[in-house]
Amino acid sequence: MNPLQMEPSRSSQKKQGRVLSPSQWFKQNVLTPQDTDITSLGEFLLPTLLGAMEACWIAVALIGLAGTGIFGAGLPLLPFWAPFVFIIGTQWLFYFVDRSDENARHAPLFIILAALLCLFIIWLQVYAPVAGIFDPRWLGTLFSDILFLNSHFYQVVIIIALSFILCWRGLRLLSHAIEPSNIFRTLCLGLIVIIVATVLRAQLASAGAVLHDDTLLFLLIPLFLYLSLGAHSLARIAFVRRTHTTGLQGSIVAQERAVITVMGLLGAILLTITLIVAIFAGPAFFTSALHTLAPIGRAMANAYNWLVGIFANVIVFLATPIFWLFSLLNNLVSKKAQNPPIRHSPFGKLKKPVTVSAADAPALLLAIKILLPVVVLLVVVLLVRRALRNRKKTRVRRRLRDEDFHESLWSWSLFWSQLRALLRSIFGRFLPQPAIEGGTPGSSTPLIEPADPAVRDIRAIYRAFLKKAAARGYARKKDETPDELRQRLDEKTPLVEPQLEAITEAYTIVRYGESLPNASDVAYVQGKWSELDQKWV
Asked: Are 201 and 66 in contact (CB under 8 A)?
């Protein structure tokens, strides 16, 4: 088979815009496992950004629940940094461990680190007022709370369960392909949680409760929105590149670099605004702002009440006939109903069933108190175990040459060879010339050997093709690769697609490949160029 007529890869077929039949699409997208290798910086950062988004709204939820006085403490069950450490730390831990050794067992190391971090958080949130972290008395207090099954015991159980659930979530994000729809769902869920937590804290503040971490809650909201914007942008780039028929046009590195640069500048602007507001805007500023905006708020409240009243009247007007119909049917059925006859039991009076309450059965209450935490911990352990077993290895590879969207005109080997030739031409007269066998003493071997005739012929054919295309109004752009030029010409002139493919593939192999064409290959390309030249008369 002619080496210049090799069958293109599946990825190149997708990028050429060819239409697949339903059976081919089902085999390619359903039966064949998809390539989940990470090929860009954006795909590598997506699980981290989505994990940070989820950590933000989880921290907001914990801060909102802390004001309710759960377990008699005004502090959150987990510190605000714990969700970030458990979710993102799990992802980066497995990434670095897989990078060092893919065949080693990493579950014991992960469990040990997670358990140590759980112990530290338990001491920080529960037993820090009792003793220092290196004081073993707090471990004795923990053991005593476990035996007595008091509120501290259940607080410890919930801390352990939440910690390992967050680790499980980090593993799940690391093992799945992230799409823009996942980012949007997380954004909607996070906004709902933030609104509910804000309303809850406002109600608790109006009731006279003492609340903490207001500044932290204020900082988590813009951070969540900032992460959502960046994650959605990078997910959109990766989604278009993997699913679109022609892929993502242009340099992927340049596009992701532009997105990351814009997000960095936006983050710096948001941080600056936040610091300015925190420094110069005191309570008096917000009080004056509230007094200034009070008329607008009252007008909006009146308009809202008016719209709600209209909506309620419409619902009542539409639902009244339905209620009338149900009441009429109820009256008709109640008139026909008869009281059932009372049947006397031959065994005398029936005894009422005896109901056993938890207060009357302390053993049942004790069993529930013990079994419920055990069941919760077992479920968490099974989830983490399943995530560890079904985890996919994080593989990072460079993009293949047939998938590159840009080429470099710079060649270091050519630069150094030309620099050596220039220096030799300047200082060569001062250096002794080496003697060469079979030649004159003044002769020397050229530094750059002439190119192979076949390579030179194919490059000449491709240059003639570029001139012909430019004459017809299809000049090659500055940052356009041969494959991109062929795709653009296929859309404009579909009749010459076979000739374009053969000439472009031959030039690509000669320009970037290591194999040299032979005389039959050159003749084949010349024939295709003649056919193309005749069609483009």
From this structure: no
- Tell the residue number behind the tokens 């040990």, with chain if given: 112
pTM higher than 0.70 for the full model? Answer: no
Check if the beta carbon of residue 235 is closer than 8 Å to that of residue 178. yes
What are the tokens at 106? Answer: 């990493």
- What's the CA gap between 267 and 273, in Å, rounded? 10
- What does the buried/exposed string (b/e) look like for 44-56 if buried means 16 or more CB atoms within 10 Å of the residue's CB? ebbbbbbbbbbbb
SS3 38: strand
Angle at 526 between CA 525 and CA 532, to 5 degrees: 90
Task: Burial-class residue 108 by CB neighbours within 10 Å (0-12, 13-18, 19+).
Answer: exposed
| Range of lowest pLDDT (88-97, 336-345, 372-381) | 336-345
Distance CA 503, CA 482 (A): 10
Span 405-459, pLDDT tens digits: 444 455 667 778 778 888 887 777 676 655 544 444 444 444 334 457 788 888 8
Q: Which residue has the higher pLDDT, 228 or 258?
A: 228
Domain map of the chain by residue range? 34-280+363-389, 292-331, 450-535
Are the C-beta atoms of residues 180 and 97 closer than 8 Å to each other?
Answer: no
- Which helix (H) or strand (E) segment holds residue 30: the answer is none
Indicate the length of the chain as a whole number: 537
**Which amino acid appears at position 168 of this protein?**
W
CA nearest to 45, candidates 224, 186, 238: 238
Of 389, 397, 395, nearest to 110 by C-alpha is 389
